[in-house]
């Protein structure tokens, strides 16, 4: 079946117009009146390929905590790995998953300042211990005992979610909440561009045009990079082109020809200044190493569960640098909010489908079939009406 690339929605986007209260109006929640709403629901992963819908656990938020009403939750590759049962050793079932989200504050616990019911927020889903060697060096986002909320502890795919107030990142009222669900993966891209030190005029090759690769390419372009994105899947290349990105097909029979030759032509035989490995594939690693110029930087973003062969002679010969990049910090999140809000990251073009909470299973199935780039679960809609 031909994968869909056009934006397809099962229900209309919640626009800023309906989400934003006008002057003198009170905030309203993105869902039915919370006072009259029946029991809030949660979607739980219980075993490989199995999700159940049941009552969410709700309790008054404790000191320093905030209860949220999640509006939209994005599904990422990690959620798909969990769904496939590949992370059962880490994920304690039954587990509410989901960590790319937007929503509104419902209740604040004792001692929480600066947030009030109705405020639109997203969550930086990290809880660090503050005491390990990484934290003490100021690298809390890669805490050696990191709790990634939505994997190691309950996530956002539910109608009520209690999180530490320290994880909240404020959203502008003018930003529609569906688009805001793209802030978390955008923060990944912002962090990666920072780690790689992309500068104005840098020639940048992004290997892999999944959602993360596309966001890296967009943010690298916004940072002044001249970007090419390498992707074997024709549908993903087409979507990248619709986003204004220039793509190359690395397949052996490609009309683009050999990627390395293209890079030589493009750079006057020098090679690229920066490569991002975002494919997770062995061949992608090789491409990312081979395209680099002398003193080039390879930023490793993809998760490679197994060791990969790497041409270390190339690293020696060209004095290359390998830079690991994981997650984000608060500054990355705040930059990401701005990039999504101002449209530098055209989040609405990356959202290929929105499904009601009750159809979360369909969202996972459609993602694994490769038909979508970014699927959002609409937690404000617990009906199964209009499902995909
Ligand atoms: N560093 C972090 O904090 C962080 C955060 C989120 C995701 N990730 C990782 O980033 C990676 C990308 O995430 P995603 O959601 O975009 O994944 P994805 O699987 O949707 O995208 C990977 C893309 O790479 C393409 N690809 C495969 N082989 C290739 C090759 N040889 N050359 C070029 N492209 C090739 C695939 O066709 C696919 O489109 C994953 O490994 C994910 O786990 C890392
Ligand atoms: Zn720590």
Quick description:
The chain is α/β, with parallel strands linked by helices and 388 residues long. It has 13 helices and 17 strands. Strand 10, helix 6 and strand 11 (226-230) form a beta-alpha-beta unit.
Describe the protein.
By secondary structure, the chain is α/β, with parallel strands linked by helices. It folds into two domains: 16-182 and 345-378, Quinone Oxidoreductase, Chain A, domain 1, CATH 3.90.180.10; 186-324, NAD(P)-binding Rossmann-like Domain (Rossmann fold, 3-Layer(aba) Sandwich), CATH 3.40.50.720. Helices cover 27% and strands 23% of the residues. The chain has helices spanning 16-19, 77-83, 133-136, 177-180, 183-196, 211-222, 234-242, 259-267, 282-290, 312-318, 330-342, 347-350, 360-368; strands at 41-47, 50-55, 65-74, 100-108, 120-123, 126-127, 147-148, 161-164, 168-170, 203-207, 226-230, 246-248, 272-277, 292-300, 321-324, 351-356, 374-378. The strands form four sheets. Strands 3, 4, 5, 8, 9, 16 and 17 form a seven-stranded mixed β-sheet that branches. Strands 12-11-10-13-14-15 form a six-stranded parallel β-sheet, with helices on both faces. A two-stranded antiparallel ribbon has the order 1-2. Strand 16, helix 13 (360-368) and strand 17 (374-378) form a beta-alpha-beta unit. Helix 5 crosses helix 6 (211-222) and helix 5 (183-196) packs across helix 11. The longest helix has 14 residues, at 183-196. The protein is globular. Mean pLDDT is 90; it is low at 1-36. The chain binds nicotinamide-adenine-dinucleotide (NAD) and zinc ion. The site of nicotinamide-adenine-dinucleotide has 29 residues, from helix 6 and helix 9.
